[in-house]
């Protein structure tokens, strides 16, 4: 096999290109997949409404579903309780040093709403329902079921991917509202147990900083996170290869990519929605 001569001065750049080019190619392929899945929403609603309704029922409320039966609801609630307790413990212990223990309500209304609750829910959904999406599509790929859909004139991406994306986004809305409420309640209970004081001061500071706009932005973040994580995990399952072992490898890659992208997008959305301004002012 003939080898291509590379000048010594260019050799480091060629090696870097050899490592970066495949990664950029995969990112471009994933972006095209992401766009195709979004563009296919009207197609899925027009031709595959039955599959969408079935998936929505299975994911959200069906017997043995991915969320309730599969444990995502339980995981989300546990994470909501955990992050709420952590905010209550750490926030109160720090502010109490300054004599501002009840002001932990400020931390709860900002941190739970803007950061922790959306991330907690997206991770719960990705680790439970998202992994199952990867396994389902991966097993269909290696058993050539996706190729069979093509032969039957059924478009695989709208039928398998877009329907899952839409069902996930709709199913996650009520689940997120419950998770956020649980985190609020847990923080309040923890502060009350630690301080043993009345709830009036805590609720005063809590309502001082909490706004409906923040809650809507928080819900938007949760929806975006679930949409991105579900798309990534469907992508790795849709293009899985290498037999049953390849499905497991694809699930691992999907989890790693989903968590990384969600954290990066969280930073970008926080800067875009709130910038560096807390959105409230103290006066007096």
Give a quick set of tags describing it.
single chain; 284 residues; mainly alpha; globular; phospholipid transporter activity; Permease_MalE; ABC transporter permease
How is the main sheet built?
A: none
Order of helices and strands: HHHHHHHHHH
Approximate helicity band: over 70%
Average pLDDT for all residues: 84
Number of strands: 0
Strand content: under 5%
- Count the DSSP helices: 10
Structural shape? globular
Structural class: mainly alpha
Terminus-to-terminus distance = 80 Å
Show unreliable segments. none
| Number of structurally distinct domains | 1
Q: Supply Rg.
A: 23 Å
What does this structure look like?
The chain has 284 residues and is mostly helical. It has one domain.
Could you outline the blueprint of secondary structure elements for this entry?
Blueprint: H1 11-39, H2 41-47, H3 49-61, H4 72-96, H5 104-142, H6 145-151, H7 156-195, H8 199-209, H9 212-238, H10 243-274
Helix pairs in contact: 1-7, 2-7, 3-7, 4-5, 4-7, 5-7, 5-8, 5-9, 5-10, 7-9, 9-10
Short recap of the structure:
The chain has 284 residues and is an all-alpha fold.
